[in-house]
Amino acid sequence: AIEIATGEIISLNDADDVSHPQRLERQLYVMQKTKSFHNLCGFKHCYSQKDIEMVSGGNLYSTLPDEKDIIPANEVTSLVHKHFKIPGINHYCIGQYETHGASCLFYKQHWKFGMKFLPGNMGLRCQISEDGDFNTKMTLLLQKTTVLKEPLYGYRRNTTTNTTWLE
């Protein structure tokens, strides 16, 4: 899908997850404001319909994100460097703040230049998930990743799409 997409900016959303209605506009605003190449937003583990509704139908934001809502690229790079060698890391943990791998927004030109998701059977991935691996590479190699500290992405837990592989 990324390969055939015609837009300049790419966003992900896993089939079993949900996004806030303003997620893309807020992440794009942060990328433009900070001149970053790659942005991740916060997420919420969703164990119930109520959790899902808090993310996907939650309150609309009336103001734009400001500095207190953004973790700058130099801080994100430094923190990912610290966690890089932890086996099985999937999400970025920045202090008490966590992002989800699929919550990213990035420029397609970086995909075309080789910053692609790698299949797991090549022995080249540094993390257990394709999107986590992609985000780590984007962050460490380009050093232009920012994080929007708003829970705009919901990771639905215990759904049929993310538990059937256990059977």
Short description:
This protein is of the alpha+beta class. The chain has helices spanning 23-34, 49-56, 73-83, 108-112, 130-142, 160-163, and strands spanning 9-11, 17-19, 38-46, 70-71, 93-94, 97-107, 145-156. Strands 1, 2, 3, 4, 5, 6 and 7 form a seven-stranded mixed sheet that branches.
Which helices and strands, and how do they pair?
Elements: E1 9-11, E2 17-19, H1 23-34, E3 38-46, H2 49-56, E4 70-71, H3 73-83, E5 93-94, E6 97-107, H4 108-112, H5 130-142, E7 145-156, H6 160-163
Parallel strand pairs: 3-7
Antiparallel strand pairs: 1-6, 2-7, 3-6, 4-7, 5-6
Q: Can you give a write-up of this model?
A:
The chain is an alpha+beta fold and 167 residues long. 32% of the residues lie in helices and 25% in strands. It has helices at 23-34, 49-56, 73-83, 108-112, 130-142, 160-163, and strands at residues 9-11, 17-19, 38-46, 70-71, 93-94, 97-107, 145-156. Strands 1, 2, 3, 4, 5, 6 and 7 form a seven-stranded mixed sheet that branches. Strand 5 (93-94) and strand 6 form a beta hairpin. The radius of gyration is 15 Å and the shape is globular. The protein starts with 8 loop residues before the first strand and ends with a helix. The model has no long low-confidence stretch (mean pLDDT 81).
